[in-house]
Amino acid sequence: MSSESLDPRYTIKGATAEQQQAVDMLARQFLLTDERLAGIIKEFRRRMEEGLAADGKMMKMIPSFVTRRPTGTETGSYYAIDLGGTNLRVLKVTLDGKGGATSMHQKFTLPEEAKSRTLFDFIAQCVETFLDDHNIRPTGHQPPINMGFTFSYPVQQTSINSGTLVQWTKGLNVPGCVGRDVVRLLQDALLRLGLRVKVAALVNDTVGTLLSAAYADPSSQMGIIFGTGTNSAYYESASNIAKWKGPNPKSGEIVLNIEWGAFDSDEFSVLPFTPHDIKLDRKSINPRKQAYEKMISGMYLGEIARNIVLWLADQRLLLDGRSSEILNDMWSVDTSYLSSAAVDNSPDLSEIQQIIEKTLNVPNSTLVDRQIFKVISLLVGERAARLSSVGVVATLTKRPDLLNNHINIGIDGSMYEHYPDFERIMSETVSHFIPEEQFKNITFNCAKDGSGVGAAIVAMLAEQN
Ligand code: GLC
After folding, report:
1. Distance between CA atoms of 347 and 367, rounded to whole angstroms?
2. Which atom of ligand 1 is nearest to the CA of 155?
3. How far apart are CA 375 and CA 373, in angstroms?
4. Which atom number of ligand 1 is nearest to the Cα of residue 206?
5. pLDDT, tens digit, for every residue of 31-45?
6. How remote is the CA of residue 34 from the centroid of ligand 1, in Å?
């Protein structure tokens, strides 16, 4: 392919032939044609079927034990604990009976010690602080407070409020938890503090996102997170889940947590790996795992870009071969820098200059350096957005009957909210694989705060049961 056929945005004004050649090579590595995507979607569907048939497969397809939909008319206040990768929130969610919810929350940053050792005791302390600060700690005579617990990691659920941790993903790595019931671990920590709190529901963040979207719009079928990690949950018909041994739900449906971040893990057979992805994977805490997540989500994109920057610098094609202590540190390029760089249209690319020279501490960048940094940001981000469509298309086309009526998809996460054009590129790519008549039935909506609100809704549904 000649450089002329590549996107004109990848032409660097004032670049040397070697610099332009290197950029063109990157552009070709990161280019994902529809034909290539079609092959990836097919494999994704095959892996979904495999996960529906048996446990322990690449895509876990985990039954969440949520079998009902909220109607949107429920009212009342419910509590939730929302554990993400870096923060913990304790919330009180009030449902207004008209599909709307308001929440009041307290946010806590996970200290390093909690991430590596004392996680569940830390969560219990935060719950205690919340109850005391709001003067709602139940005394010995009062009934315990029910709380939903959003736990954004793969858990093999054994009931609505129990499940064993399959593995840690994203940044957490607390020893002694894999294979154990995370509700038990939390409940024990709450007991140690003498708190009358019952963990009434264990909810993946994607399940929460779906349920909060369903409270606002009953036609919601999928909940997706494009954030630090990525994953999705959807309503599957129980008869399609061959491995399901539980009772057939009255509704005929069960919400499944796909754990799609694991797609192509171990095998590395279909995703478009570049040497920069492989380098990231090799140095991550979970090599060969979460392959799809590592190309899409906020935890990793900055690191892919950092690998590219250093690869170019090492050939003296960028920053005159210079780097800095910060730039040499793994994870020092935050994905938010790419979001800012992608939309820097100032004549001298001043935002990018700021990132390179001030944040990353590499002085004297040239305009050519900054243009190249921008192209790297576009390539990494746009590949992520196009690849995101794979999971969406594979899931939607699994239940094609649903596409004949309006269906809503609730989405939350920093990539979706902040990455420029992420939604447009993702949905436009989806439209290439779904007939127009059906595509127009789909809406994508931001389910802001879905994971916390959703956990409270699941706690409410569990209470009704
Ligand atoms: C990771 C977790 C998954 C979660 C997702 C989004 O992929 O394994 O459970 O839903 O991140 O937070």
Report:
1. 9
2. 9
3. 6
4. 10
5. 999 999 999 999 999
6. 26
Give the pLDDT band of residue 5 (cuts 50, 70, 90).
low
Q: How far is the CA of 325 from the centre of ligand 1 (A)?
A: 31
- Tell which one of 149, 164, 169 to mutate to probe ligand 1, the residue whose CB is within 8 A of the most ligand atoms: 169
In our burial notation (b when 16+ CB lie closer than 10 A, e otherwise), range 320-353 reads eeebeeebeeeebbbbebbbbbbebeeeebebbb
**Phi/psi of residue 270, each to 5°?**
-125, -25
Ligand 1 proximity of 450 Cβ (cutoff 6 Å): no
Catalytic residue list: 89, 152, 205
Give the mean model confidence (pLDDT) for residues 191-195: 96
Does the beta carbon of 212 lie inside 6 Å of ligand 1?
no
Q: Does the C-beta of 413 come closer than 6 Å to ligand 1?
A: no
pLDDT interval class at 8 (50, 70, 90): very high
Of residues 263 and 449, more confidence is placed in: 263
Q: What is the 3-state secondary structure (H, E, C) of 15-57?
A: CCHHHHHHHHHHHHHHCCCHHHHHHHHHHHHHHHHHHHHCCCC
Q: To the nearest whole number, what is the mean pLDDT of the chain?
A: 95
Residue 227 near ligand 1, beta carbon < 6 Å: yes
How far, in Å, are 62, 149, 151, 214, 305 from residue 209 at the CA level?
16, 13, 12, 9, 29
Give pTM, 2 decimals.
0.95
Q: Which atom of ligand 1 is nearest to the CA of 262?
A: 7
**Residue 298: CB within 6 Å of ligand 1?**
no
Does the beta carbon of 206 lie inside 6 Å of ligand 1? yes
All domains in the chain, ordered by first residue: 67-217+449-464 (3.30.420.40)
**Residues linked to residue 147 through DSSP beta bridges, in sequence order:** 79, 199
Which of 407, 406, 376 lies closest to 274 in space, CA to CA? 376
For residue 2, pLDDT over 70 is answered with no
DSSP state of 247: P
What are the pLDDT digits (tens) for 302-349? 999 999 999 999 999 999 999 999 999 999 999 999 999 999 999 999
Task: Compute, in angstroms, the gap from residue 340 CA to the centroid of ligand 1.
Answer: 25
